[in-house]
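Friendly challenge for the regulars: who can give me the structure tokens for this chain first? No prize, just bragging rights.
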Amino acid sequence: MSKYLVTGGAGYVGSVVAAHLLEAGHRVTVLDDLSTGFREAVPAGADFVEGRIQDAARYLDDSYDAVLHFAAFSQVGESVANPGKYWENNVGGTLALLDAMRGAGVRTLVFSSTAATYGEPETTPITESAPTSPTNPYGATKLAVDHMISGECTAHGLAAVSLRYFNVAGAYGSYGERHHPESHLIPLVLQVAQGTRASISVYGEDYPTADGTCVRDYIHVADLAEAHLLALTKATSGEHLICNLGNGSGFSVREVIETVRKVTGREIPEVAAARRPGDPAVLVASARAAQDRLGWAPKRSDLAGIIKDAWEFAQHRVDGQ
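First reply, four minutes later:
Bragging rights claimed.
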């Protein structure tokens, strides 16, 4: 049994990873300021500390075997409107966390990175060797953190794995996706199915794809969690391993909408809208490195299954919003 600190463990992905760690028999402490997370999302059995990652030195000691770091602001539009908030939290907070880990002698880190570090890809599927050119402050802050982690590994022997993933979806029992405001396609379409949103906007119908709408790579949140647990076992002192996570194939906006119709049996009105600036036609990940280095492969790649799990969570979640 090991002991782990999960920063941002009251959020969507962090809570599912914390639940998986507990199920594997480990001890878990969740550190979250609840600015975007939910106290009821912290899994039963985990210790909870309400606080910021900037203050991690108060809570971290040598009893911890590793840190899994999810505490970041992640709304692209907000990052454009308020970049300072993102640099202060995502970068400044992680720098404080790395300092705290070094001071406490905690030498293993798994970092929740993002495909937004790549920006608009030149080719797909995207590999880890693709150029990194973020198109917004959110992606830029995540890339800056990856650079910081690399430096920490080289200078101080940190063992680190960064996992760059694309569109996370689905739910794991009582743990699922809820953001305020919501900006992700599947939960937005499910809101239409629930009757809390009048229609779903389709931004662009003339892309060079099979049906003219954007294609994205969706990964089930439970598959994602399993990758994080594998990463803990593969982290090597002095190495910063970066792996993309994804299904390796994508689904179009229209395929997602049609699958929600089939899963829910509800009508989903669509509204055609202009393309959004900077929206690439296709974003699909190559997960070959994760397969080779972590021994990971997605097990829940069926879009209908992903949406079914998300739909069940949307109908039964605690706050009903």
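The radius of gyration is 19 Å. The first helix runs from residue 12 to 23. Your move, everyone else.
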